[in-house]
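Quick check before the chapter quiz. The format below is the same one you will see on the exam, so make sure you can read both the input and the output lines.
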Amino acid sequence: MSRILIVSWEYPPLIEGGLARHVRKLSEALVELGVEVHVLTRGGEEATVEEEVGGVQIHRIVEPERPVDLAEFVTWVERMNSDMLAAGVELGDRFEFDLVHGHDWLVAGACDHLARRYRCPLVTTIHATEYGRHQGWVDKHPQSHIHGVEKWIVNRSDRVIACSEFMRDQIVDIFGADEEKVRVIHNGIDPDDLPDADESELTRLRSEFAAPDEKLVLLIGRLVYEKGFQLALEAMPKVIEAMPDTRFLVAGSGTHEAELHRLAEDLGLMEHGTFLGWIGDDVLASLYRIADLTVVPSIYEPFGLVALEAMASECPCIAADTGGLREVVPVDGAGLRFRASDPDHLAEAAIEVLSSEELRQTMIQEGLAHIRRFDWSDVAVKTEELYRGLLPVADPS
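Here is the expected output.
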């Protein structure tokens, strides 16, 4: 049985975004395959340093709350890597690791040093790139620094995992990576992770945002520019004009939040919708279930987990025809795609879905079938096969 050290800057219950959930589900699924998985991560200012959850051995470093300013954040990340390296060295004295698997640039420095110290292969999963997040504008600090770290760790690693064909092409093109060492392994989704809610509670929750005879459009995720929520808001006046009994709900927080508020006010939309702010996982699933439509308007999207979460929650979904969403959301049936960065086409797709109960029911049923293609067990099998390809063949004697 192989022993793997997975390094990630977040792991439940400390959740900054989708990365924490990805690492947890992958780690637990690998354990099911017989892999001994240790996760080195951070735990905030007060954390249980070591624990076992779901068969995964979790080792946490104690770190203060991360700064909001991006320039300060880069310095904070460097300190975090130093602390992770020190913890990893101590772990190496206790365990003999066969492979190190890091996630994104945030832990690149620690992963590089630990893989060299352990004399073992290094695998890196790139979940997104600074180049993609900023549409290629990475010539100034701190974007240039982050871009440089990403390029370095991609070319340093023995294998690189991309979450979509789109991301694989981007990694090869932008970083000049060897095509042969970049593998595509899609993310997974487990519908059981989306907790059921009492129907009466769902009815009560929906009444906070829409009347029974109104349609509710959900925009959910990190409120950052590349997620494209501004495009969805720009489309809403056309949707409301065609279907006056339509309301919208923006759920999430992020650096673009204040600007989205101003845009909604400028468009005269505030009387037609609600900004809910940050939400926890307990509310997340319920929001999908009370909505009539989820819109994923991303400008840049490496994968598109929100689309799969909507389908798993029996909520029709329309998404921008860009990035990994092309691989996650079908052209028809389980979902609809609209031209990226085109508010008018987004509005047309939304109106088409909202105006047809038959179409919505078809999308719900086909969406439930579609998500079966993204099973965490399959993700783990492919990842473990990649690991085995880097490890020495065991002597049968």
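If your answer matched, good. The CA atoms of residues 74 and 142 lie 7 Å apart.
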